[in-house]
């Protein structure tokens, strides 16, 4: 298929005012200006005159399919709150891909989602990235072990306070995380020593430590739920101690720490932006957060935290960030190329470039406005 005469917002450079996109199977085969277009015999041609063409939108932090729409406990599979340390859990095993929110995501132009366990546990489990079209999760996955979810602040405290067990303070939450990371580091060292010396036995298999080894080897990142400024600083402190790469999730008070975050080369996923200050650690919430972070050089993506905010309102959230002072081009990047880069999946998604997945969204008008609706969505080279 070849798409012709559209304005292409590649997110890899300046827009192409009148261009073409050629796809082959699930991939983008060619992108260029119409003056360089050469027709191919028997090729399906899709006319896009007057449309703006954008990369499929990416939600860098959500729980789609883990808390199912219109259900209570029966559809709640995001928090295993019987143990505060559960790194061995995998989000991929909890997602229902035929839950109707996936259809709504796709209709809203969201073609890629990063799905994490909830924030009840200080260490919650593995995060995955997947496409929003399909009926079997194994066919939708982009990256099964994308990151490890951690949580600081009120959520772990509240969860375990009601059970009368630790952690019930921020001190205990941080200590529990440190303990598990230190144990994993020793476990990893013992495994490596045994591999080098046949006279040494390997340590007894530990499922939790095995799950955290990729993190300590810096093969994956920590995604850390942290709203308040002190929690953000604790996250950075722990990651520095254990030499871990990390992304700050929510980062509600990031605006108060923006120069410090920039100096540390931190990345942030901000959101949800359309909600009330429903708990104490949201007291500093402001819609100019992403603008302040961006101005200070902090790479920032925008998320819905679905189901906190329905996922189809991701582009509207980017529009709210523009209202808060984020430059329009940066807002587009915050739901396309920036989340792809932050999450390490920009080799496949986030921009319209040769070799990347053929995920595209067509709009007539402003995609970040309250009334915007995609005219057409293409995912994996197929029209939705």
From TrEMBL:
PANTHER family xref list: ALPHA-D-RIBOSE 1-METHYLPHOSPHONATE 5-TRIPHOSPHATE DIPHOSPHATASE
CDD domains tied to this protein: Met_dep_hydrolase_C (cd01309)
Lineage: Bacteria, Bacillati, Bacillota, Clostridia, Eubacteriales
Pfam family, one: Amidohydro_1
Species assigned in the record: Hydrogenoanaerobacterium saccharovorans
All residue ranges annotated as the Amidohydrolase-related domain in the record: 53-383
InterPro entries linked: Amidohydro-rel (IPR006680), Metal-dep_hydrolase_composite (IPR011059), Metal_Hydrolase (IPR032466), Metallo-dep_Hydrolase (IPR051781)
Molecular-function annotations in GO: hydrolase activity, acting on carbon-nitrogen (but not peptide) bonds
Protein name: Imidazolonepropionase
């Amino acid at each position: 298929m070849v798409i012709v005469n559209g304005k292409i917002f590649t997110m890899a450079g300046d827009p192409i005012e009148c261009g073409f996109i050629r796809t082959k199977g699930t991939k983008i085969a060619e992108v260029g200006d119409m003056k360089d277009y050469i027709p191919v015999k028997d090729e399906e041609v899709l006319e896009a005159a007057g449309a703006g063409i954008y990369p499929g939108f990416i939600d860098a932090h959500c729980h789609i399919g883990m808390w199912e729409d219109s259900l209570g406990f029966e559809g709640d599979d995001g928090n295993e709150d019987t143990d505060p340390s559960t790194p061995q859990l995998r989000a991929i095993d909890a997602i229902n891909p035929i839950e109707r929110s996936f259809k709504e995501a796709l209709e809203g132009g969201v073609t890629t989602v990063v799905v994490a366990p909830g924030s009840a546990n200080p260490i919650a489990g593995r995060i995955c990235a997947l496409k929003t079209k399909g009926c079997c999760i194994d066919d939708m996955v982009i990256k099964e072990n994308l990151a490890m979810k951690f949580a600081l602040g009120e959520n772990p405290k509240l969860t375990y306070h009601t059970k009368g067990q630790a952690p019930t303070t921020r001190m205990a939450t941080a200590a529990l995380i440190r303990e598990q990371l230190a144990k994993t580091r020793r476990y990893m060292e013992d495994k490596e020593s045994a591999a080098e010396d046949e006279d040494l036995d390997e340590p007894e298999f530990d499922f939790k430590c095995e799950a955290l080894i990729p993190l300590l080897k810096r093969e994956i990142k920590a995604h850390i739920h942290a709203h308040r400024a002190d929690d953000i600083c604790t996250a950075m402190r722990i990651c520095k101690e254990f030499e871990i790469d990390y992304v700050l999730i929510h980062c509600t008070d990031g605006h108060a720490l923006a120069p410090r975050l920039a100096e540390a080369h931190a990345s942030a996923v901000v959101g949800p932006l359309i909600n009330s200050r429903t708990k104490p650690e949201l007291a500093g919430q402001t819609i100019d957060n992403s603008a302040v972070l961006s101005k200070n050089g902090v790479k920032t993506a925008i998320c819905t935290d679905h189901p906190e905010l329905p996922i189809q309102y991701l582009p509207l959230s980017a529009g709210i960030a523009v209202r808060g002072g984020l430059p329009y081009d940066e807002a587009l990047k915050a739901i396309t190329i920036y989340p792809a880069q932050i999450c390490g999946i920009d080799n496949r998604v986030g921009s319209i470039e040769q070799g990347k997945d053929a995920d595209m969204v067509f709009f007539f008008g402003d995609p970040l406005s309250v009334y915007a609706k995609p005219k057409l969505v293409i995912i994996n080279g197929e029209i939705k």
